[in-house]
């Protein structure tokens, strides 16, 4: 079966279970921590699938991967290990996070700047995005000095590139004709 379909089924089942127990926020925090670990430590799943580890040890590793795992997260970890779905963990975490954001009307916003955003500017960006009808905004500020100045804003799948580096590239492109000589 397709990994995306299976992952989404696990994520939806986890959402339903967490909602029923009113712990969807805690599970979201756990899944965010798990995703960060899985993204940062590529060998984690390989080590988790090590045949020398029994199921108890695997469940323990999954629970140690997050801060304050609740009963619901422990049951999720147990299910994943018993069903031997460890290789799908990163996809399940992504799917749960997307589902959570959709259900709670939260949008993830990435803003890339040459220097770290000041708090008043970050607050202004959040309020502007919220004015588009979102209940919540998760703002991530990425510092990249190669953009020279300006900013690049990503909201969902939309991108606004107002960087100085892209502006300079456009000017350079206009100055060079088809034969790659300066006009």
Keywords:
single chain; 8 helices; 183 residues; alpha+beta; elongated; Peroxidase, domain 1; four-stranded mixed beta sheet
> Any idea what the CATH superfamily of the largest domain is called?
N-terminal domain of the delta subunit of the F1F0-ATP synthase
Specify the overall morphology: elongated
| Mean pLDDT across residues | 91
Main β-sheet, spatial strand arrangement: 2-1-3-4
Cα(first) to Cα(last) distance is: 57 Å
Low-pLDDT windows of residues: none
- Total strands: the figure is 4
Order of helices and strands: HHHHHHEHEEEH
In terms of DSSP E residues, the strand content is 15-25%
Number of helices: 8
Number of separate structural domains: 2
CATH topology of the largest domain: Peroxidase, domain 1
- C-alpha Rg (nearest Å): 21 Å
The CATH class of the largest domain, by name, is Mainly Alpha
Percent range for helical residues?
55-70%
The SS-based structural class is alpha+beta
- Give a short account of the largest sheet: 4 strands, mixed
The CATH architecture name of the largest domain reads Orthogonal Bundle
């Amino acid at each position: 079966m397709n990994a995306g379909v299976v992952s989404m089924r696990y994520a939806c089942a986890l959402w339903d279970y967490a909602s029923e127990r009113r712990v969807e926020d805690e599970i979201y925090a756990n899944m965010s921590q798990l995703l960060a670990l899985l993204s940062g430590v590529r060998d984690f799943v390989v080590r988790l699938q090590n045949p020398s580890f029994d199921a108890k040890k695997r469940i323990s590793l999954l629970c140690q991967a997050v801060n304050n795992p609740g009963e619901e997260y422990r049951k999720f970890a147990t299910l994943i290990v018993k069903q031997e779905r460890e290789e799908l963990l990163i996809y399940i975490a992504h799917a749960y996070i997307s589902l959570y954001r959709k259900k709670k009307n939260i949008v993830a916003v990435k803003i890339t700047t040459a220097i770290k955003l000041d708090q008043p500017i970050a607050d202004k960006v959040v309020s502007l995005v919220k004015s588009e009808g979102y209940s919540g905004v998760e703002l991530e500020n990425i510092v990249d000095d190669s953009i020279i100045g300006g900013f690049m804003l990503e909201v969902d799948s939309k991108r606004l590139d107002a960087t100085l580096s892209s502006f300079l590239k456009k000017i350079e492109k206009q100055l060079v004709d088809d034969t790659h000589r300066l006009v």
